[in-house]
Amino acid sequence: MTRRFILSLKFAFAVLLALTFFAAQASNVSAKTKKVKHGTIKILTTPGGLMLTIDGKPRGETTAEYRAFDLEPGMHTVTVRLPNGQFWIRDIEVPAGRIKCVVVNYRPLPPVAKSPCPFPVNISAPTQVTDGEIITYTADVAYNGTAGLRYTWKVTPSSARIISGLGTPTLNVDSTGLGGQRITAILTADDGSSDPACAQTAQAVSMITPLEKKVIVAQEFDECNSCSLNDQKARLDNLVVELQNDPSTRAYVIAYGGRMSPLGHVDKLMSRAKDYLVAHRASTLRVSRLSTVDSARKTALSCG
C-alpha cells in the first residue's frame, strides 16, 4: 500500500457511553448524573407533628409521610420529642449515595410492672421501602431491672444482608436485590435470667418495592477522523478514565471505513484499538465493559 493511497483512506471512530439509570417511565431519560457525595435519611413518625432535630439543629416537625434530608456521610444524631415529653434519640450512620429509611411509632407504654423483666417490646420500622434502600429497625423496651438487656435479632429471608446492629436495639438491613419480597426482623430481648417471662419477642415486616425498569441512553464521547496511532491512544486513555469515574457505564468503539478502504482494513484498526485497551488497561478496568463494532458488519466484538 503506497503512502498516497493511505492518505486517501478515511477512518473515524466514535465512542458511545451507554449510561444506565433508573426511571419511572421508559420515556423519561436524562444524561449522566454527577457522583453523589451525600447520603439521604428519610424519616416519618406516627403520629406526625413531633419536633425533630438532627445533630442538635431543629428540622421542624415530623409528618406521617417521609421527609427526606440530605446529609454528609457519617454518623448523625436524630432526636424526636415524643408526645409524653420524652425523647427518642438514635445515632444513625448515613452512607454516601444511599438512602436510609427510619420510622418512629409512638405507642404509650403501660406502667412498668414490678418485675424487672423487659416488657413490653416495641419495634419501629418502615412498612415499605424501595429495593436498594437501607432499613433501620429500632426497638423500645420498658425495663426497670439492673441487669443489662440482651438483644437477639433474626432476619428473613437469609439473603437480606445485615449491615450493623446485631446485639443492639438498632438494626440496619440492606434491601438490595430483594424487590418484590418482604423482610421480617424478629427481636428477642431478655435479661439473661432463666425466667421465660423475661424473654420478650416482637417483629416488624417491611415490603420491598422492585426497582423500575432500567433505561439505556447512549451519548457520543469522542470522534476521530484519520487519527494517528498516538492520537488514538490518547483518546482511548481518556475513555478509560471516564469509565473509571462512572462504574455504571459501558463503552462501544465504532469504526467506519471509507469507500476506498481495502478489505480488512477496519478489522485491523479495531483490533489495534481492542489490543491496546486490553493490554494496557485490563488491570484497572473490567474489559467486559468495552466492545468494538465494525459499522459495515454491525457486529459487536466483546473485549472480555
What does the model show?
- With 304 residues, the protein is mainly beta.
- It has 2 domains: 3-23 and 214-302; 39-209, Immunoglobulins (Immunoglobulin-like), CATH 2.60.40.
- The chain is built from 3 helices and 20 strands.
- It has helices spanning 3-7, 229-245, 265-281, and strands at 11-22, 39-46, 51-54, 57-61, 67-71, 74-81, 87-94, 99-105, 121-124, 128-130, 134-141, 150-156, 161-164, 170-174, 182-190, 199-209, 214-225, 250-257, 290-294, 299-302.
- Strands 2, 5, 8, 9, 11, 13 and 14 form a 7-stranded mixed beta sheet that branches. A 5-stranded mixed beta sheet has the order 17-1-18-19-20.
- α2 packs across α3.
- The longest helix has 17 residues, at 229-245.
- The protein is elongated, with a radius of gyration of 28 Å.
- The model is unreliable at 1-33 and 298-304 (pLDDT under 50).
List keywords for this structure.
304 residues, mainly beta, Immunoglobulin-like, 2 domains, five-stranded mixed beta sheet, 3 helices, disordered N terminus, disordered C terminus
